[in-house]
Amino acid sequence: MLFSLITTIYKGSSYLFEAKDFESLISLPINEVAILLSKIFMLLISNYLFTVPFLLIPGIVYFIRMDISSIYLVNLILMFLCVPLIPIIISSMIAFLLGNISSKLKHKSLILIIGSIILLAQYVLLVSKMDVLLKNIIENSNSVTDTIKKIYFMSYYFIEGLKKMIFY
What we know:
This protein has helices at 2-16, 21-27, 32-65, 71-82, 85-104, 108-128, 130-139, 144-151, 153-164. By secondary structure, the chain is mostly helical. It has one domain (2-164). The relative contact order is 0.12.
């Protein structure tokens, strides 16, 4: 779910506001809101396709293997439908803000390249420190649930909802 947020932030601005078809679609007699909603809907569909292997398939296998009620499956599907909504809302707002800021800048390509290099350097740094991070997680295994709850609360409530058969 957190990976969905990060990838949606990255592809949201280019897909929603910087697509090459946007200018040609605006010139058609189609409402601008309908164009934007259709682009958000396509972003939502791509997020559903991205989250199926991580949420829905393991959840269905768990349902088949374990002796639990069918309420679990209904709860899983409802929660699966809601999970990508928050990352899309957050990424759309960030994309809108970045689009407004970059449209006012003179050298937006240079800023985009520098920003991409900074993000790539942070990723390389994270990967290089992964062994230390994993050791800390293993040593503090009692607080992993609390850490997940603080960092990305949606995943915590998703698991709790499935365990307790409730829909938050």
